[in-house]
Structure formats: C-alpha cells, structure tokens
Amino acid sequence: MKERNYTRAKQLLVAASCAWAFTSVSAVYAAEAALPVIVQELVAPPAVPAPITRKSAARVVVNLTVEEVEKEIAPGTRYMFWTFGGTVPGKMIRVREGDTVELHLQNLASNKLPHNIDLHAVTGPGGGAAQTLIAPGNEATFTFKALASGLYVYHCATAPVGMHVANGMYGMILVEPKEGMSKVDREYYVMQGDFYTNGAYRAEGLQGFDMQKAVDEKPTYVLFNGADGALTGKGSLTAKTDEKVRMFFGVGGPNLVSSFHVIGAIFDRVYGDGGSRYQENVQTTLVPPGGSTIVEFVPKVPGNLTLVDHSLTRAFNKGAVGLLAVSGEARPEIYSKGIKTPLPAVAGAPVKAVAPPVAVADAPLARGKGVFERVCAACHLPDGSGVAGVFPPLANSDFFQERPYEMAHIVLHGRSGELVVNGQHYNGVMPAQDLNDEDVAAVINYINVAMNGGKPVLNAEQVKAMRQIKQQ
Ligand code: HEC
Ligand SMILES: [Cu+2]
Description:
Radius of gyration: 28 Å
Shape: globular
Number of helices: 10
CATH class of the largest domain: Mainly Beta
CATH superfamily of the largest domain: Cupredoxins -  blue copper proteins
CATH architecture of the largest domain: Sandwich
Helix content: 10-25%
Number of strands: 25
Bound molecules: heme C, copper (II) ion
Largest sheet: 6 strands, mixed
Distance between the termini: 91 Å
C-alpha cells in the first residue's frame, strides 16, 4: 500500500514536471524565435571581428569550416596543418553575454579525418564535442547559450586530441560582457602553440608530425599564430604612440604554458585567465594551454616592441617571437637614447681593445674588431660563423659580400623578415644597434676585410647620411 502510494506520487510528479518542462521549453523557443539572427563575420588572425554595439541578445550563426591545409611553418619548411577556417589559430568568434550561438561545423569532403569542436564558452558536457563529431563531407549544427562573459579557447577534441591540437586545431571565442568592452584603438588576436615535426627546427621541405616528441613535450617549434615569423617582417603588428592596444592572447598548446611578455611595454591591464577582473601594471603573465588573457597597454615611444614567451629559448630558438611596430614622435623624457663611455683604465690593468676616436685613422680595423666583439659576437659568434637557422653568418656571407655598403642600414635600423645567406633561410629579428657613426663604419669595414676578404667600404660621413634614410 505504501509502495503503491509512492509509485502514484512519482507518476504525478513525472507528469507535472513534463508539463512544466513542456511549457518552459516552448516559452524558451518562443523567446529564441524572437531573437534577431546575426551571421558572424570571420576574419583571419591577427584581425579580430568588430566590437559588439548591440544592447540586447541575438542568435549568432557561426559557420566554421575544418580545413586540412599544407602551408609554411617556417620559410622553406612546409607542414600539414588541421585548421578551423584555414588559419592557425582558427577564426575568432565574438558574441555577447546571453547570446545564443548556432554553430555550424563543416568538415570538408577533401579532408582525411573526422573532427569536432569543444568550446570552453559552453556550459555542458564536452563543450559541443559529441554534437559536432563528423566525418569528412558532413556538417554538424549545435546550439548553446553563452552564459558567461570572458575569452575562451576552442579546440578540436577528436582522438588523439593532443595530435589534433598540435596540428593547429584551436582558436578563441570572446563573449563580451553585457555592458560591452571599453573602446580601444587596436585589437589583435594572437595564439601560441607548440609544434612537433620530424625534422629539426627550420629543416627544409615538408615535415611530418612526430608523436614521440609530442608525448615527450619537446617541441621543434613554439609559435605565435602558426608560423615562424607570422608576426615579424611584413606580418608585424602595428600601432601609433599613445594608441590603446588590446591583445587577445591564448595558448592552444597542446602542452606548453606561455610566460607572455612584450619587451618594452608594461601592461596597464591584464584580464588574467581571460576572466572578468583585471590586474594593473603587469610585466609578464602566465597563460596555460587551453587558457587565455586579455592585455591592454599604450605604447608611448616609437620603435619595435617584441612579443615573446619569456621562456626565452622558445623565443629565440623555436620561433616564439612577434613584433609590434610603433610609429610616432620620440619622447626622450620617457625613453632616452643613452650614453656609453669606457671606464677609466685602472693603473696596471690591460687596456681594453676599444680605441679612442682620435686613433681611428691609425687603427680602424682594431676599432671595428672591438665593436664586433663587444656587440655583434653575442649573436653572430666571435668568429662570425653564426648559428645555423637562427643567426646568419657574417664571415664568408654571400649576402654581406653582395652589398657590404648597405649592411650599415641593417646595423642602424635593425632587420626582420626572411633572409637567405649561403643558401640557408633565416627569419629572425636583429634589433637596431645603438652605435655612433664611426663605430658602424669601423665594424662594417672590419667584417668586410677580416671576415670576407674585401676592402674598407665606407666612412663615418657616409654612415651619417645613411642614418637619415630608413630602409625597410
Ligand atoms: C641580438 C642578436 C644580434 C646582434 C647583437 C647582432 N645581430 Fe646581426 N642579425 C641578427 C639576426 C637574427 C639577423 C637576421 C635577421 C633577419 O632574419 O632578417 C641578423 C642579420 C645581420 C646581417 C645580414 C645577414 C648577414 O649574415 O650578412 C648583418 C650584416 C648583421 N646582422 C650585422 C650585424 C652587426 C655588424 C652586428 C653588430 C654591430 C650585429 N649584426 C649584431 C642578430 C643579431
Ligand atoms: Cu580535429
């Protein structure tokens, strides 16, 4: 008897909750139907979709296409990337807190593998992974509500997940708070990822994926936006002095944490972990794989600011370098050019090889040698032989010998972007060297004479003239 009553009560409860569920579901559908439909504009990184100006919820339709594409991972080195939208990172999605997102994932028929998407902005098991798992030649549609504002990573979650992510299958979705975000002058979208190729760093030709290196977490490349040099040379980010810059930075991984830093800038605000609160006046911020940060700062003086993972061998030996080229008026009260003078010689101590200016005519090569050892040898090595794939040789350099005179431009203004020396590709960043005209002439002449079998090619007057012309 007791038992039957209990069962009856349960039946009633089920019936009641069904009725409740029915009305509330249809109410929800009615509300959803009323939402304006907006198709998300998708732009290639480092560009970002436009800020949201609307003040109410919408149904945002996102059409993402999974594309397996062979592209350059470094100059002369190719790799088969798996992507969301053809780019690494995948195209950024931008919605408003409370929006309903209708995500269409297409797996192109020309692809070889099944893929899916797990968005960290989703509240619910798997973040959409199960709903969107599809073989090539199919489309999956999945709808979710963006309940919480923040900057979220999305990624493929198809087994082996580490491999899909290592091949470039990640991107970010920004859920703006209801009240919107403060206005800035520039917004950029950068993601770091670790890549595992069969060959060594910058080994030429098409490279395959090395699962063992991935398991050992020993990447060949650590990159911003999927390619060595994606954000240097022609790809450099740009800003003007006093402009407010916002970077949406995330880590796809699959394995390495990033100590994200911009050399020459202090972040005014860091929305740590891509969340709602900000910290002020930050130098370096830690971003885990599958995590993000929003940094804001205002460059005050012109010059190149360098984006790095402050685990520095990743930056200088594995590719995690980018540039923000800042233009504008110099402000010596904030950032001066500096003065360098030799220390007075201590009695009895051996005299340093830096010759005083008056002795130039007598010993120009000695002066050049001194500059070389003090300044250039740190990167190009004391014998000028360079570091394969990273710092080009200055000794016996065909590039140098072709136009030794013009090399002064490189010393004066710095250089980034692709470069071929003795048949080997380089794509690094050489900072402008803060040297006076005599020293620049001396070091170029020294390199040409002592390391390339040439003759002196220029004097301080000519360097002075070259200083006025900024080449790119
Ligand atoms: C912080 C490291 C660093 C320092 C210091 C440095 N260089 Fe470089 N240099 C580089 C890198 C990296 C490149 C390649 C740039 C590129 O890929 O565009 C380069 C390229 C060059 C090139 C053109 C390529 C070649 O091999 O002929 C010349 C010339 C050169 N540097 C001269 C100098 C001289 C002279 C000095 C010292 C006054 C100097 N560099 C100091 C890093 C450095
Ligand atoms: Cu995948």
